[in-house]
Amino acid sequence: MNKRFQKGLAVSALTAMVVAPFAHPVYAVGTDANSNGLNETEESTLNLKKDLTVRDLDDANYTPETPNVTFGYTVSNGEAGTFTSKQDDKGDQVFQVKAGKDGNLVKVNGTVTTGNVVFTQDDTASKGKVTKDIALDFSGITFTEAGIYRYVITEADYTVNDNSQLTNALPQTTANKTRNVDVYVEQDGDAYKIKGYVVSKTSDSTGKDAGFTEEKTDGNVDPTKSSVYSTYDVTLTKKVDGVLTNNAGYSFTITLPTDDNGTYGYQKNSDSATTVETTNGNNTHTVTLAKNDKIKIQGLPVGATIDIAEDHVEGFKLPTITVDDQSKKMTNDDAGKKWKYSGVGSNDANNDATDVVITNKTENDSILPPTGILMTIAPFAAMVGLGAALIALFAKKRKNEA
């Protein structure tokens, strides 16, 4: 290749980079307010972005815990082709793109060819989203010609790092799992250096992207094209039918989803919101509720369910239960001395928590009340007894006087 041709090719590559801002493709090497996303760079490392959207379907003001998942990324050589710069006021500009070379030498987050992005429960979501870098290091490649080289990065299905049930809460993306990374190289003396990057889902500037970022359809994040983790809420209300109640309260055991390190929002009545946690296989929470008490649990993964068990109360029969106003049936566990209902889940209605109401009633309101209730009516019973004794005494006195 003669020097004049080399110089011309270098000028062509640089021209592509200069023209690109007017077409607004994303150069994912930085964000300069004066360059519409284009920064010329000699850095050999490109940082792409990976977004994980985190949302609670029943309460937009609540941000659930980030799930423990790992996404894998692999870089390979792309095929020769073109990149079209779409411009509204000018004709399209088409640039020739070479096939990538030595893609197996590209490091992804420090690992050759394939690397990982790990999300954990310690990651705090900002405005409902956690963003991490995918660092692509091209320093291991020696370029021998100027031009635009295409590489392809592919996102693999995520893997779960604990026992969380995420199949429905975090669907695997089914579309747009690859990005083209076009590397701009020009001659610099006797060497060839990287001068910039273009990242796109397609072969033209309409597919611009900064990596694997969230995509929206009709204003909502599209779970087929983005990683979206969704949770739901449950409320449990304690009711007692009739005037009799148990002063000691009603004890419940709630079995939460299996998660080695789960944290869920928790609120009782109008008390300050707090959390309940699951640790190392211990995923139960106990609470005592009085008549008309209510608790709310938030951040439960969509698709996962919870179980509710109430301790037997002497003198009370099997409680009734409704889930979102639909009558259900509890089961009696004589051996464990509990009344149980399993499988409370999401109602698939946004902004509407799953409402569970459990109502207790005595076996017979006219019988001697159970322990805990006796003290509620004992004073009245004593007054009735005393009144009866006085009436009998008065009647006897009148008879003797007669």
Please describe what this structure looks like:
The chain is mainly beta and 402 residues long. The chain has 2 helices and 27 strands. The relative contact order is 0.14.
What would a concise description of this structure say?
The protein has two domains: 38-212, Immunoglobulin-like (Sandwich), CATH 2.60.40; 232-362, Sandwich (Immunoglobulin-like), CATH 2.60.40.
What are the secondary-structure elements, in order, as H or E? HEEEEEEEEEEEEEEEEEEEEEEEEEEEH
Indicate the low-confidence ranges by residue numbers: 1-39, 366-377
- What fraction strand? 35-45%
**Please, what is the average pLDDT?**
85
Query: How does the helix and strand content classify structurally?
Result: mainly beta
The helix count comes to 2
CATH architecture term of the largest domain: Sandwich
Taking Cα atoms only, what radius of gyration do you get, to the nearest Å?
A: 34 Å
Any idea of the CATH topology of the largest domain?
Immunoglobulin-like
CATH class of the largest domain: Mainly Beta
In percent, how helical is the residue content?
A: 10-25%
The count of DSSP E runs of length 2 or more, i.e. the number of strands, is 27
Please indicate the count of domains: 2
Distance between the termini: 142 Å
Global geometry: elongated
Organism: Faecalicoccus pleomorphus
Transmembrane segments: 373-395
Signal peptide: 1-28
InterPro entries: DUF7601, Strep_pil_link_sf
